[in-house]
């Protein structure tokens, strides 16, 4: 992308112990590479599809492990392929917790927060069209 978003557009607050840090929401290099391959209109279409997919996922209650595990797996894959590594990583943790029968409270909250961050970043990227 020739006109890169400002660094704060691609980052979100994250906690590392007790020290606040900035965690990348997406990898600008991946988006630049994808734009070079597909062109900007197609990249924006892919980001719109990711936004739609995010909006439909991770809404089930914590007791519905099958649905949440499927949602996490789907988002892990699609977000990772578009460089949204924060969401992909949180969804990997969520899927693992579902498969292991672990408590879903923290992984679900983290995945939902990453989803919110991803949607906000996509909106910023779209506005820069």
Topology:
Layout: E1 11-16, E2 19-24, H1 28-38, H2 40-56, H3 65-81, H4 85-100, H5 105-127
Helix pairs in contact: 1-2, 2-5, 3-4, 4-5
How would you summarize what this structure contains?
With 129 residues, this protein is mostly helical.
Task: Give an account of the 3D structure.
Strand 1 and strand 2 form a beta hairpin. A two-stranded antiparallel ribbon has the order 1-2. Helix 1 (about 30-40) packs across helix 2, helix 3 runs antiparallel to helix 4 and helix 4 (about 85-100) packs antiparallel against helix 5 (about 105-125). About 30% of the residues are buried. Helices cover about 65% and strands about 10% of the residues. Mean pLDDT is about 85; it is low at about 1-10 and about 15-20. The protein is mainly alpha-helical and about 130 residues long. It has helices at about 30-40, 40-55, 65-80, 85-100, 105-125; strands at about 10-15, 20-25. It is elongated, with a radius of gyration of 15 Å. It has 5 helices and 2 strands. The N and C termini lie close together (about 10 Å).
Order of helices and strands: EEHHHHH
Radius of gyration: 15 Å
The tally of helices reads 5
Biggest sheet: strand arrangement: 1-2
């Amino acid at each position: 992308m020739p006109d890169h978003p400002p660094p704060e557009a691609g980052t979100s607050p994250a906690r590392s112990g007790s020290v606040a840090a900035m965690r990348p929401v997406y990898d600008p290099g991946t988006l630049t590479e994808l734009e070079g391959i597909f062109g900007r209109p197609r990249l924006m279409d892919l980001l719109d599809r990711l936004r739609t997919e995010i909006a439909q996922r991770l809404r089930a209650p914590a007791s519905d492990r099958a649905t949440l595990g499927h949602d996490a797996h789907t988002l892990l894959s699609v977000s990772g392929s578009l460089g949204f590594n924060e969401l992909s990583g949180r969804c990997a943790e969520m899927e693992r917790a579902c498969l292991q029968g672990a408590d879903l409270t923290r992984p679900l909250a983290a995945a939902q927060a990453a989803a919110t961050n991803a949607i906000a970043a996509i909106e910023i990227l779209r506005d820069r069209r």
